[in-house]
Amino acid sequence: MSGARMSALAILRGQIERIETAEVVHRHDRVALGHGEVDDALKGGLARAAIHEVFCAGPQGAAATGFVMGLAGRVTARKPLLWVRQDFSEIETGALSMSGLKELGLDPRRVVMVRAADVESALRTSADALACDALGAVVLELWGETRQFDLVASRKLTLAAQGSGVTGLMLRMAAQPLPSTAETRWMLRAAHSPPGSASMPAAPWDAWGAPRFDAELLRNRHGPCGRWIMEWNCDECQFSEPSTYSQPVAAAPAHRPDSAVLWERRAS
Amino acid sequence: MVIHALAEAAERLGLYIGQPLANARAMCPDLKVFDADVVADAKTLSDIADWCDRFTPLVALDPPHGLFLDITGCAHLFGGEAALLKTLVRALARQGFAVGAAIAGTSVCARTLTRQASGSIVADGNETAAIERFPVSALGAGEVITTGLRRAGLKTIGDVAARAPSEITARFGARFSTLLAHALGQGDAPISPRKPPPDYIVEKRFAEPIATDTMIAMTLSRLADTLIASMEKQGKGARRLEAAFFRTDGVVRAIMVETGRPVTKSAVIDRLFRERLDALADPLDPGFGFDMVRLSASRTEIVVQEQRDLDAHVHDNDELAALIDRIAARIGGKRVVVHLPEDTHIPECAVMVAPAQHYLAAAMQAEWPARVESEPPLRPLRLFDKPEPIKVPFAAVPDGPPHQFTWRRALHAVVRVEGPERIAMEWWRQDGKQLTRDYFRIEDAEGLRFWIFRDGLYEGEVFDDDGKPASPNWYVHGLFA
Predict the structure, then answer these.
(1) Which of A73, A31, A67 shows the shortest CA–CA distance to A49?
(2) What CATH number corresponds to the domain at position B213?
(3) pLDDT tens-digit series, residues B202-221
(4) Which residue of A has its CA nearest to B338?
(5) Complex ipTM, two decimals?
(6) By its UniProt entry, which Gene3D superfamilies does this protein fall under (chain A) (predicted)?
(7) Which residues fall within 8 angstroms of residue B349, CB to CB, at 6 or more apart?
(8) Is B176 part of any domain?
């Protein structure tokens, strides 16, 4: 390759870099998810002001919803969340239940739901919402393969998110990953409850515990990919490494008197 | 079959409304006949009423083919009563309607005049003189009363008016004597307008009709400026705005925009209408152009001024409300929703979905039942509106959970179970007999988690036709994360 051509390429690369970084004000704003290895892979946590995609197979919709809700709960920081979905998705996987959201430790008061009639209006609404910096995050839930969500649409959403600092989360159920401008791309599956230890194997009647996700990071623009089991901790509202016990260990009751004190009282 | 309506030419031949069709055919063999369409007639009348909105906001229907326009305080805008009447009659005639019109102090008097002396204008106090020579049928009091009056020898309205009111009331009822009094200008009944008059109206008329999008947008934003200026003087903001586009050929298109908070900026109005016009399924068709555009605020509210600069939180809420308004203008207010808790144990009724424009503030302050600390989620994240039936082959314990089940044609083997959680229906509000549900939280071999329930207690609530206990049905109600 001749020197002139090389320098032309270098100039173009420089220009593109400037275009891309000029808009990125919120680049270093990252939120730790709580799972050590995942946070390492993500260089400190999930980037705000970017688009993240979560894919799943059809029947795994609820698990992916839980994962997206967890991500949204981490990034919104007490700001409102706009959830955009198609009309029919509540027949396919059920409506997002606010009682269930509360049980995950998240705040249903800050969720505004948009029921779009078709993909175009869903995309347009999300792009609009991503440009509104009063929001913490925008979730766009799409069911099935969609022709309309192409690279151009994805780029539009990314630009809107970079401009305002709002995080965009795409929940793609029953869809195959395609090239896009997303910062990260995940493939979600439901994970089993822990099988129990050798001394105490879990019986069918053993209750299961916190939500667990088998999360595969398929694409990460600024780091390695990987696959982890992540558990959502409903009390602390963050992800964590999987625990061995399916049920949380009960804390010592605070309101009961200590047994020794009780004994002393009886003796006296 | 009888004649419902007829053309002028047919009337000249001696045909009349109510005549049997066979008789009419006998008189005029080459009569052209069409089926009467009462609904379409009513629609046409209502379209004409829409068009008449350009003269006054108070337009009332007088079916089957009349309209009342209350032009009190409007006439001078059109160069006086005579000019208004002339403009109206000429414009309607140009659209192909045969029209009779008259102006009088009371609605009944004006209606009587349109039937006999179209185009007349009667000053206050002259009603009796104006209508006394007309036949009693012009009052429009109904067939029975008109015939009765005629049989009594009272041929004109003047004859009837000459009798003592008590005699008329005794013979024909109080309703007719009131009608007569109104026709003679003694007292007036208010008309009932089709729409409540808007609080604020601004409009722009064009000598040369406009048709381009840019002109329409520019007109709207100018009108918005004027509207805001007049509302601002009284400290009001608009909650519902309507833009009406009057086409030169008489078609009127009205477009409505609602907001969650009172709007006080013309730029916001401008943007809302732009979103709405962009998203119209059937776009605004200018035809040969619009000769008038009207912007009205049909619902207004007093604006509460808030301290904005110091409190970023208030600013954020404003931004969110504005975003919701924009989305609602584009895709409809019912599609943007918030959720409010309901005080019930029945899972599908525990959440109320409400339009975000009106309930945003309520939703932000709602009290949700607290979750139990250090427990896994007890309610699913995805809830089916209608529980989906599943096939359960058998249960090991009669009222225990199933070992496997078929949902959406896939077999799920149960690995872990938690439950039951029994939810009894609310006896104080149910209409029919509803069954107690035993809910189980279940994890299958793939790690998917379900919320399933058995509808009805085992051997307690479900019976077959012979009265013997039947096996209850099972349903999936939700999916856990």
Answers:
(1) A31
(2) 3.30.1490.100
(3) 999 999 999 888 999 999 99
(4) A112
(5) 0.82
(6) P-loop containing nucleotide triphosphate hydrolases
(7) B342
(8) yes
